[in-house]
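Q: Predict the assembly, please.
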Amino acid sequence: MRLGFITSKIGIAAAVLLILGALPAWASLGGDRASVDADQVHLHGTRTTKAVESYTVHEIQAASGVVVREYVSAEGKVFAIGWNGPWMPDLRQLLGGYFEQYVQAAKAQNAARPGRRPLMIEQPGLVVEVGGHPRAFTGRSYVPEMLPAGVRAEEIR
Amino acid sequence: MKSPRTFPAFIFVPVIFLGCAFLVGCSGGGSKTAPAQIIASSGNNVASISVSGGLDGFYADAAFVSVTVCVPGTSTCQTIDNVLVDTGSSGLRIMSSALTSLPLPQQTSGGNPVVECFPFVSGYTWGPVETADVEIAGEKASSTPIQVLSDGSTPPSGCSGFGASQNTTLDANGIVGVGLFTQDCGDYCTVVQTGPGDPNLYYECSSPTVCDPIAESLTQQVPNPVSLFSTDNNGVIIELPSVSAAGEPTVSGSLVFGIGTQSNNALGGATIYTADDAGNFTTTYNGTAYPDSFIDSGSNGYYFLNTSLTGIAECTDESDFYCPGSTVNISATDQGQNGSSSAISFSIENADTLFNSNDDAYSDLGGVSGNAAPYYFDLGLPFFFGRNLYTGLQSATYANGYWAY
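A: Predicted assembly structure:
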């Protein structure tokens, strides 16, 4: 369940590809599908690609157990990111141009109400949720305006 | 709020529940009755806990203790108050601003200072690993690696990419991780990680702006300080009294070291719920099991599921908290990896109403844990009120540690 890859509620799986070996790294939120390949680095992991009706999910499992999922629209845009694993992924890389907005929002939320709790950032142009605890982090981010028609936000995980 | 507070002597009147004359029959099983809570008030293994507003006075549902750090083998020491007790992590982390000219030895690698980047949900802590004798109550962990939060060097991008820095937003003088695990990182950090999806936590800094990842052995890592005590080193008990539904200004209780090692820390009738290797167990609610759930004194409320799964409205101003129109009672079941389970119940009150009271302890503060899978229950500090909650360190018997209550 935790590392599962369940998209049955989304629609008909059109294609499932499992690729093993050294593969490209991550694209950034809001970036192009092309950057998934262009952002070439040495990821020691497994990538699973799953296409559904209106988008494709690229799931990349790193050796650490950190799993990252990239949601790419039919137009080739990365509209959402999800992750889970024992440690946090590099959100600067995953959120790209949205990273600073996330950091500022997280700081503002902490300043408004001191305390340690799941981070729920909900802004007009950006949603970021981070939860769990050290050794078991989970999170996701998406740009609401970029969600393909018919895609429900809770599909992103 | 920064001045030291004094606490009244503990006076606890045992309450005898008629159905619980024999403790063995009182744990688990969904019974509403429970053994009378007895809070340890004396002993060399007992530290005072204060649930209070913390450094700035605005912290809600946070448990603080005082920790004394000393230059190893000397009596050159400093006592740090307002250190957050966190069963959700392991390791002692102290703000450098709270350490006034205490010359702690710096851990080095190849002649360079070792600096750690530790990720929390709220953000990362950054700063050098230094060595101290750590004293809490009458317990002492000698020559213990601790993290000193400092911006004396610049975190590399692999660190700052975790999110926001916690170095200036901890709202405490430190955080003491007394959780399930012996080290803060474990085997993962004993080798340098090279994949972009594989973060590093330990670095050596050859200059304030040049920090490279290093392999950090288990004995060099920042440990749960309890694991280095000479006795009473197998876990902790957090013992806090009940808190009224309306909230209370402050609450006092105890952090007890050791489980079953002294007359004041017996497991008694408590049931053990073991954790998985990620430090989670299962909470079942409304017929659905959530296997990514956990108990965490460092979380300042009950954080669970979301509005669509619970039917509890979010607050309009702070949407991460719940603001029901009237009190909501939640019933669920906790289950350990070992199969033992028990019914739990708690209430959620309107967070806006609670915050308006300006109290520091709320038994019924809650919020959302996430709007997509994996959904989970984060049973934070309110879950500790009115019960003695044991956090057992990982051991040969319990590979990933346990909770007991």
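The CA atoms of residues 56 and 144 of chain A lie 17 Å apart. Residues 15-142 of chain A form one domain.
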